[in-house]
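pasting for ref
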Amino acid sequence: MGPSSGSCSHTWKCLAFLPLLLTTRAGYLQGEDSRVLGGQPCVPHSQPWQAGLFQGVRLLCGGVLVAPQWILTAAHCQKPKYTVHLGQHNLQKPDGSEQEIKVDRFIPHPCHNSSNNNRHDLMLLRLRKSVNVNSKVKPIELPSQCPQPDQKCLVSGWGTTTSPRENFPETLICAELNIWSQDQCEEAYPGKISDGMVCAGDNAGVDTCQGDSGGPLVCEGVLQGITSWGADPCGTVNKPGVYTSVCRYTEWIKKTISAN
């Protein structure tokens, strides 16, 4: 059944991620971990599943609420400890909808390891307590089928809005992308694409970028991707963003949540 089965027998080449750099901005340290560029501020709280993974005031990565006590993010975002922020729109101007909860347990996909960063780039975080589910903080639906080429999807995050020069926004940014066929994806990144990945981009340079790792790719209200990696600089023509394809891992996600 592909990557969802938990089999780790495949051998693939690995493209190294950019190193984690830190930029101080407006009181926050913004994580530039690999992989919204060309987007616009989201309608406030229109992405109620969006999470930010923080160490103190340092934003490291994005994440997605998939159950009241569970966050899905990229495995390469793993650090010793986090506080998860939910219900947040403007990082500098709280509006009372924010929830902050510490992480109780980290569960990377069993096939992911430090020398294989691009493959199975998925991790579940169990929160110490369940979130208060409301209109501004609520889980997103997991997919029952994979996205189709040319399907329109939405990405979101607090990552840099320009590249290679960096400009980190205060508000959550959203952008619309199209799903690429697997053949197009493999042509863009020869030898680096597995069936556990999905590409999304457009012809105008819209892309996820530094600081967006672990965030959601949402198609018709369903979570279809987790921001993983892409070209440097972001928004390079014919080099789409690459996302962990959630539909390939739905079984693992559900079984892990149920068992823990």
